Hints:
The protein is mainly α. It is built from 15 helices and no strands. The protein has helices at 2-15, 19-29, 31-48, 50-53, 85-121, 123-138, 141-152, 156-166, 169-182, 186-193, 198-206, 211-234, 246-252, 256-261, 264-290. Helix 3 crosses helix 5 and helix 6 (123-138) runs antiparallel to helix 9 (169-182). It is elongated, with a radius of gyration of 24 Å. The protein starts with a helix and ends in a 7-residue tail after the last helix.
Amino acid sequence: MKNLEVEHKNPIAVRGESLWLKAWKRFRRHRLAMFGLLVLTTLALLAIFAPFVSPHSPTALNLAHREQPPSWEHWLGTDRTGRDIWARVILGGRASLSVGLVAVALQTIIGVIVGSTSGYAGGKVDMILMRITDMVQTFPMLIIVIVLVAILGPSLYNLMFAIGVIGWPGMARQVRGQFLFLREVEFVQAARCVGAKPGSIIFKHILPNTVGPVAVAITFGVGEAILLEAGMSFLGLGIQPPTPSWGSMLNDARTLSILEKMPWMWVSPGIMISLAVLSINFIGDGLRDALDPRQQI
């Protein structure tokens, strides 16, 4: 009798395992995703604890040590004003990663609201919201962000706002597609039959089932926002001195003499941007595989 109980409990325990735990186990098997998570976590920790990791100030000028190549004292060298490149690179991660996270959070909020309302309501509401989405998506994102930042003034917060309010159409379309499909499935129809209100259906039944695609879109969006911040800072419309960012450091090294004779000034921030974007893309690939409904069986 005890053996039967044990045999009966084991399958239940397996079936009772949460979908999130299963997804995490699949994610851990994705080697590139785990590597990306490790690298991104390392970059984030370096940015958070930058004052404790570097022995030098990222903004202090030291003309006696200007334009020095990498050494034991200055691990990644110094720039034209004697500022330590290592200190500026790790502190610059704060601005670049913050822009990616905050801008994509704003994109996600707007995109989920527009996409869920459009997909669930349908009809004229869907048509109006999608035409607005098409109109926003028609404009080149880089040009509109440049115009907005030029109007509002170059700063970290204005750059976050500009990227967030322009980059939501892709998220809205993805959420709308999920809602159009999910609103017709059996469990949603059953919720309607028992008298569930639209708000309850959206937040309790449909929206939780869009978490997978939305999470994947968020990871790729963060990578795009970091690249866009780097481009804006390179143009002088992003984070302003003396606060460093990876893009502004590339902007400081754009002269031909620096490119040829002082490669340490642009190689380090370039590598950081590449590592951050690649890591986020690897994580997105892992999430896409881990949260794939076809893998839930």
